[in-house]
Amino acid sequence: MHAFTIKDLENLSGIKAHTIRIWEQRYSLLNPQRTDTNIRYYTNAELQKVLNIALLNKYGFKISHIDKMTPEVMKEKILSLSQVQAQQERLVNELIGAMVDLKMDVFEEKIDDYIASKGIEKAIIQIIFPFLERIGILWLTNHINPGQEHLVTNIIRQKLIVGINSVRVKQDPENSVLLFLPEGEHHEMGLLFTSFLLKSRGIKVIYVGANAPLKDIEFIARHTKPAFLYSHLTSVGNNFNLEKFLVQVYNRMPDIQLVVSGTLVQQYKKQVPANVSLKKSLSEVMEYIASL
User: What is the CATH number of the domain that holds 276?
Assistant: First the structure.
């Protein structure tokens, strides 16, 4: 069993914590436990139930109606959702459930089935990246066991590498991007995903990878002369300061544009250096790559 906070449920389901508390008070949907200090926590089963409730509610079912559903009826209603977006969200929820229950065979099978049906690019865009965005906040707050994280990321990493290696689009040597993660950042999934998108659109990728010192990035950039630098920040060490990182990149390489995406930039409000561009959502990343 894993213990999730109400904030975890909010981040994973998109339902505000205040609304979840109202559901608890008015209906019999949830029955959280409490710690010795009277803080709510939720089990794996309750997390999955909230995900299912949120999905049904989003696509037209009233909470008062959902409250009366048996688990079997709830599952039947979810499977009956015909909207393409609803089906994709259902699958992302199922991936989250398989992850928290350590059912890695189920997790990989669902991804493989989607790849077989839709192709690797749609699988990455429609289910893998949304899944990573949903659970990224759990990595950030250390609410995912490292064992779960390693199992999941290794499976996804394999799929992304297969996708990258399968790209047969001719690369433009005059239009290149250097991809890296700063020191302390080891979560490569977002960076690998970006590498796939860029390569599939004919942009040459110089892939440095995780935990790279800025002095090394500067050395490589001066010799390879990329059109821009790209980094995707999910969960960096406690000593990492985003503002300081952006300024350091600017001071070292003011003539090269830096694009940064990921969980850590989504709430960033401060002014950024002249050569920095923050992409705060998947749609912004996709639009930017399409413009290159």
Answer: 3.40.50.280
